[in-house]
Every structure is written in structure tokens, then in C-alpha cells.
Amino acid sequence: MCVETVELDDPRPTEIVVEIAGCGVCHTDLSFRDGSWPYPMPAVLGHEGAGTVIATGSAVRSVAVGDRVVLSFGFCGACDACLSGAPANCPNAPLINMRGTRDDGSTTLRKNGEPVHGSFNTQSSFASHVLTEERYATKLPDGVPLELAGTLGCGVPTGAGAVLNVLRPRPGSTVAVFGLGAVGLSAVAAARLSGCSRVIGVDLNPARLELAREFGVTDIIEAGAEDPISAIHQIVPGGVDGAIEASGAKKALSDAFSSTSLTGTTVLVGAAPVGTTYEIDSVSLLAGRTLRGCTMGLANPRVFIPQLVRMWGQGLLPIEKMSTKFKLSEIDAALAAAADGSVVKPVLIP
């Protein structure tokens, strides 16, 4: 990827321009860059942006120039899911977020008069400025570090929401989290907040296992050194009440599923390449286990992001401990660090 100068369109009535302070790098960005998920090119990627509103359209009312905001995924705002407060379930969201244009087919970006596909997850925030709809922006209080706050728009709510909005563990229950990247660490923090008695972290990377202690794990399992299923059943005889699969690895999902009790629930949030299939033991499923997926933690951004901010303020979600800053000009190094796992959450600073 490279850094180039492009032209940003003027905001339409319901649109805003945000000067980006920082944008997190998500593994989803890598998948689209590598073609594992389709997206029209040429394009600007990036979808964990946060910054300051510097211009608004004539009909914008919910944010104003000078507001600090986190940007999040797109949704139609008019379907049953959106009107019921569940925009993550919007059936129109895949098209809105992945077509690279506005509803009318126009692009928000151009270079030398030629269209460049922006609007990636309604943002394209690997950039100095973003043009997006006002409803995709959530205001932030002054105390939150703006450069790092973009992580609250995707990876963090995906993991935390998988626990708080989907798994919904009762106090004293047990949870295992497979994959301790930004999504998995956020799931760990949410399990700790929920009062789980055992929060087990599973990863191949010893450094991430140690970092997970900062987020609330009670037990760690190095997947390359021991069998996670056996280890979890030794820690919690009969299996855990719930499991989160946050790595996108096929084996991790089957291990997570088999690590639960006979009536346990496994939530899939790891985004494997399009076309990936999983194998689940039929007897284990028949016994009463549940397997379900969710996107974006089933979160309503303007409701859930303030909740995450409060968790951060109470020291329960230390996003600064999983974040490493890179200059926007160092984007290739940041993406490489995300790909090889040497950095949990690279954050690009324009």
C-alpha cells in the first residue's frame, strides 16, 4: 500500500468531514488488501478511525464542528433491525460497507478526476480526512485519548459485544477466549466485567498470553504447547459455560466448541476468508451445545461505545496497553506487524 494525495468531496446535507487523529489496523483490512474478501479497486481502506469534526452538511444535527468522534460501521437506519436498535443485524450493511460508494454510486474520493473507492465500512480512514454520514459518528468525552479511540469502533466492540450482548454470562460462570488479539482481549475484559469466575485465554503467542493478564484472564493456555480442549476441561471439569473464537482459525473454532460443557455456547467472531468451512462433531452438537456467529458484537454504536468508554475510564479496558503507534507513512510496516502478530493493535497516525 502507498500514501497518495486524493481529492475529498464536499459534504452533502447529512454528511460530515472528520480530521483523523488515529486509525487502528484490523485484520479485516489485511483480508481486503490481500483479496480474501472482495472490494473494488483502487481504494482507500481503514475502518477504525477517530478524530475531530471539521465540516458538516446543512442537515447535520447530532454532531458539530469541533466534536471528537469515533467512526463505526454503516447501516441503513430504516429496516426492522435498525429501527429496533440492532443496526449490526442490518441486512443492507454488507452492501453499504463494502461497495466503495455512496447509495447513488458516487465516490467520496477522486484522483486526477478519476474515482477512487472510499466509504470502506463507510470510512476509508487510512487517511488524514474522512467523509461519512453523521449517523456513523459517536461523540467522545474529552478524557479519552483520541489517537487510540478508533479501536472502540470495530475490534473492541466486536469482542466485548460478543460477550456482553451475545454470550451474556452470569456472574460466577466460566468463559474461554481463543485468540488474544484486540478482539479477544476485549472479550476477556467484558468477561471480567461480567463477574466470570474463570476467564481462560488461549493463544499461540506467549507474549499475548501475558498481556491478557492485564485484561482479566485467570488462566492461560499456550495452544502450541498443550491441547486446549484437555487443558480447559482440567481447569473447569465438564467444560466452560461459554467460548469466544476470535482468531479466524479453523482448528480454533472446533477446539472452542469442544471446550464447552454439553449445554455451552460458542460464539464465532473470527473472520476467516470467504468460503471457509468448519467441521463440527455431530454428537457434540446433538448433546445440546450451541454455536452461533455475530458481527460487530451485535452493538448499537451510539449506545455501546459510551459503555466501552466508561470501562476504559474505570481501568477495565486498557486499550493503550494493546496499541502501538505508527505514522501513516509507515502503513506497510503497520500492516506487516498486524499480519505477523508482533503488534496486537497497530494505530496509524496521519
TrEMBL record:
Query: Which principal EC class is assigned to this enzyme?
Result: oxidoreductase
Q: Could you tell me the Gene Ontology terms of the biological process aspect for this record?
A: formaldehyde catabolic process
Keywords attached to this entry:
Metal-binding, NAD, Oxidoreductase, Zinc
The record places domain Alcohol dehydrogenase-like N-terminal at: 13-142
Per the database record, which ranges form the Alcohol dehydrogenase-like C-terminal domain?
182-298
Stored CDD domains: benzyl_alcohol_DH
Annotated InterPro entries: ADH-like_C, ADH-like_N, ADH_Zn_CS, GroES-like_sf, NAD(P)-bd_dom_sf
Q: How is this protein annotated for GO cellular component?
A: cytosol
Any GO MF annotation of the entry? S-(hydroxymethyl)glutathione dehydrogenase [NAD(P)+] activity
Q: Which PROSITE patterns is this protein grouped with?
A: ADH_ZINC (PS00059)
**Any idea of its EC number?**
1.1.1.90
Pfam families, sorted: ADH_N, ADH_zinc_N
* Cofactors (names): Zn(2+)
Family (UniProt) = Belongs to the zinc-containing alcohol dehydrogenase family.
Q: What is this protein called?
A: Aryl-alcohol dehydrogenase
- Please tell me the species this chain comes from: Mycolicibacterium hassiacum (strain DSM 44199 / CIP 105218 / JCM 12690 / 3849) (Mycobacterium hassiacum)
